[in-house]
Structures are given as structure tokens and as C-alpha cells.
Specification:
- It contains ten helices and 13 strands.
- It is α/β, with parallel strands linked by helices.
- The strands form four sheets. Strands 9-10-8-11-12 form a five-stranded parallel β-sheet, sandwiched between helices. Strands 3, 4, 5 and 6 form a four-stranded antiparallel β-sheet that branches.
- Strand 1 and strand 2 form a beta hairpin.
- Helix 3 packs across helix 5.
- The longest helix is centred in the middle third of the chain and has 20 residues.
- The protein is elongated and about 60 Å long.
């Protein structure tokens, strides 16, 4: 088993040895200092275990991924959460930790800044919105058509916003993983205040949170076509963006 890291060669992690039973494999950990593999005892205390246990162990040692990390398959990852919930900090942590490459993140805010950064008045028009989402969709299609992960970073708190994204994923038979950012409203407003945003008011943030509470529950998201739905821990769980990122392992 090896890790494919953006901008690097494959990083060896471990080898498995089949023992004759489907769920029982020998485990040899790669030793960088010796450039070879050595039989290793798993965290269970046994010299054999499942392939998942071996990958969790090697991933934790070499990639900083928690042994219990949630596996996110290659496909469309839809972030769902109100402004100031921590979505951007989370994806930046993923990129910094080399769990995803920077090109995987498709941010409507960044696209808007690219297209209309010098003309803020034009950026808020209906025509601007159409241009932003057309470009967002184009970038997502390019990723999914190549079998690569695309992370749709925007609020996506309404079914209408998500439907457009899920329809794209269906065109490529790509799994849709929804990552929910659902902080306590008090924490959310505090984060908004700390970041000094001027494009929204605290009341706007509360409104987004109310819409999410009504229209972005786990059952609702699954009914819309999400393959999997996971909550991203944050301030309520005393979890930093980097710690939250370590809860996930991206294919």
C-alpha cells in the first residue's frame, strides 16, 4: 500500500501478506531509514488483522490520519454549512496536510473574486451569479470526468443549491459525500465576529443557520442523493481545523 500525495512520488506505507483467510493478513510496515519492510504488530497487539487495520495504522504513523478516520471516496464532496462555520479553514487544513490537492477545492467565493475582484458592484448581480456557478460547474466536471475528487466549497444549505451539484455527480456516476458544518449558533456568531466579515451581518448568519437546521438534516441530504453524510467537528467539540481534517481520509 502506498499514499499518493500531491506533487510528490508515491510514499510507501505497508505491505500485506495473505494468510489464507479473507480478513486475516500479515502486516509489514515500511521503514524509511532502511528502505524496506518489517513485520509489525498491529495496535490490537496481534501480528495479523484486516487490511483496514493495517491501513489505519500506517496512515496514522506516516500521514497523521487518525486510526478511526472516516474514508471519503474519490468523487464529489459537498460542504454544507452557514457562513463562518469553518468550511474554508477546514479545506485549507486538508490542503496543508496534503490530504487533498489545492485544485480539488472549488470555491464559489474564490471564483467570484477571480472574475469580479476589481468590480464589487458587478459581483452581486444576477449575471455575476450565473457566471460564477457556470465556472464552478465547469471545474467540478473537469475533476469528476478525470476520476478525481472535487470539493464544492460554498454554503449549500438549501436543497436547490445541492440539487445542481448532485446532478453533476450523477452524470459521472460519482459518489456524493456531504460534510456538514453545524456549530452552535452562539459559536457561529462568535466566529463571524472574530473574522470581521463585512459582506454579511450577524442576522444573515443566523438566517443561514436556521435554513440549514430546516433543510439540511442527515435524512434530507440522503434523500437528495448523498452517498454518505458526516458532521465535521469544530469549536463545540474543542476541535481545531487541523484536528477536524485528521478525522477524514480522502481517496
Amino acid at each position: 500500500m502506498a499514499a499518493e500525495l500531491p506533487g510528490e512520488k508515491s510514499r510507501p506505507l505497508c505491505r500485506l501478506r495473505f494468510t489464507g483467510a479473507e480478513h486475516t493478513w500479515g502486516f509489514a510496515l515500511y521503514l524509511t531509514s532502511k528502505d524496506n519492510y518489517r513485520d509489525t504488530v498491529l495496535p490490537s497487539g496481534l501480528p495479523v488483522g484486516s487490511p483496514e487495520e493495517a491501513l489505519d495504522c500506517a496512515g496514522h504513523l506516516y500521514l497523521g490520519v487518525l486510526p478511526s478516520a472516516i474514508r471519503v471516496p474519490a468523487g464529489l464532496v459537498v460542504l454544507v454549512g452557514p457562513p463562518a462555520a469553518g468550511k474554508t479553514s477546514f479545506v485549507r487544513a486538508l490542503v496543508a496536510r496534503r490530504q487533498i490537492d489545492a485544485e480539488a477545492v472549488v470555491s464559489s467565493d474564490e471564483i467570484r473574486a477571480e472574475l469580479f475582484g476589481t468590480s464589487p458592484a458587478q459581483a452581486e448581480s444576477d449575471a455575476a451569479d450565473a457566471g460564477v456557478f457556470e465556472e464552478r460547474d465547469r471545474r467540478i466536471v473537469a475533476r469528476l470526468s478525470a476520476g478525481r475528487t472535487a470539493v464544492a466549497e460554498s454554503t449549500n444549505v438549501t436543497p436547490r443549491a445541492r440539487a445542481r451539484l448532485i446532478a453533476i455527480a450523477k452524470r459521472f456516476n460519482a459518489p456524493v459525500t456531504v460534510l456538514r458544518f453545524n456549530p452552535d449558533v452562539t459559536d457561529l456568531v462568535q466566529q463571524y465576529t472574530e473574522r470581521g466579515r463585512t459582506d454579511l451581518t450577524a442576522e444573515d448568519v443566523r438566517t443561514y443557520a436556521a435554513v440549514m437546521a430546516q433543510d439540511a438534516g442527515t435524512d434530507q441530504l440522503r434523500s437528495e442523493g448523498a452517498t454518505a453524510v458526516h458532521d465535521v467537528p469544530g469549536r463545540r467539540q474543542a476541535t481545531s481545523p487541523a484536528q477536524a481534517a485528521a478525522h477524514f481520509a480522502f481517496a
